[in-house]
Design brief:
Layout lengths: L1 E6 L4 E8 L3 E9 L1 H4 L7 H22 L9 E7 L3 H18 L3 E5 H7 L11 E6 L4 E8 L2 E7 L5 H11 L6 H9 L24 H14 L9 H27 L3 E5 L6 H13 L3 E4 L2 H4 L4 H13 L16
Parallel strand pairs: 1-4, 4-5, 6-9, 9-10
Antiparallel strand pairs: 1-2, 2-3, 6-7, 7-8
């Protein structure tokens, strides 16, 4: 099938055309970073309004890049949740309108499942495997027995990793989005310059906690730099914070592989584009003889190709959703 995927769960308006569940014919992403940057985070009302402005042009561009028209589309997959309800509604209603007008099947996709299947667009990943979804809103470890069958092994008990990056970046006056700027700054810093905690890293669960780490950075700044952090210290602070996050994520993820007796792990989600996380995960996985599958950076961020991938599977195995389907702000996978 040729599937049109639509993604509007947060602040990216995205549309993609995927053929046979694997061939990406187009993948268009319109970001809103510049509109939210001055507020230090995403403003839901602005996000939903920008989605309204962008959704039709983005869908048209996806069709143009794939050299197709709407009559060539055989099904539509749209992110139904979780996410910002106003943003989700724009994508869901656009998808329903197109599906109804063209009399083609429509299916709602869990955003997390989309992320989990993103690496499967690029290569054949052994099953079962461990999949880590790490982003601004989630830090979850799943046992994937097969496509469509997932078991949550661990999650963050407070802040997601990406959320911690944004909050620390704001604390240090580095701007938004925090993940990109801290990753870039940390490349010139010493990750051992400051001793920050790795909460829950060595306990028996697969859960994470980043709130205490964020607080540790706050008190480090208050106690050592009451008049502001000097420019030459910022790289060391960024590198030390980032290393604490990376150590926690890598250790917990590889621990899950051992517990579940699997030899393959996939890394996906927006924070999976982080250069230090990718490098450290590669090194540690190689030491433990675990095969690592890294999602390309363009598919790490929110995108519609992963939604179309999940939609291809759903439409091949399940009945399409009724037109009464609605957006779901909280929707555990």
């Amino acid at each position: 099938m040729i599937i049109l995927g639509i993604e509007t769960s947060c602040d990216e308006t995205a549309a993609a055309i995927v053929s046979n569940g694997s061939e990406i014919l187009s993948n268009v992403i319109s970001t809103q970073v510049d509109y939210h940057k001055k507020y230090g985070g995403i403003v839901p009302e602005i996000a939903s309004r920008k989605h309204q402005e962008n959704i039709i042009p983005v869908v048209r561009e996806a069709l143009d890049r794939a050299h197709m028209q709407l009559q060539d589309i055989q099904g539509i997959a749209v992110t139904q949740g979780p996410g910002l309800i106003g943003s989700l509604l724009v994508g869901v209603n656009a998808a329903k309108a197109i599906a109804y007008a063209r009399s083609i099947p429509l299916v709602g996709i869990n955003h997390l499942e989309g992320h989990m299947l993103a690496p499967h667009l690029e290569c054949d990943i052994p099953l079962p495997n461990i999949t880590l979804v790490v982003s601004g809103g989630h830090t979850n470890i799943y046992y994937m027995e097969k496509v469509g069958s997932y078991r949550l092994l661990g999650k963050t008990r407070d802040d997601a990793a990406g959320e911690a990056y944004d909050k620390v970046a704001k604390l240090l006056g580095l701007g938004y989005p925090g993940g990109v700027v801290i990753d870039r700054l940390a490349q010139n810093g010493n990750p051992a310059a400051f001793s920050f905690p790795r909460p829950m890293m060595h306990d028996a669960s697969c859960d994470f906690s980043f709130s205490g780490l964020k607080t540790a950075v706050l008190y480090c700044v208050k106690n050592n730099f009451p008049d502001g952090v000097p420019e030459n210290v910022l790289p060391d602070l960024a590198a030390s914070f980032q290393q604490a996050v990376v150590d926690s994520i890598v250790e917990k993820t590889l621990q899950a592989c051992i517990v579940c007796k699997v030899s393959a792990v996939a890394l996906t989600g927006g924070v999976a584009a982080n250069s230090r996380l990718r490098l450290h995960m590669q090194q540690r996985a190689q030491e433990r003889k675990i095969s690592l599958y890294l999602t390309s950076t363009i598919l790490c961020t929110d995108n519609a190709a992963m939604i179309a991938k999940a939609g291809s599977f759903k439409l091949a195995h399940d009945l399409p959703f009724p037109y009464e389907m609605n957006a779901i702000s909280r929707w555990p996978l």
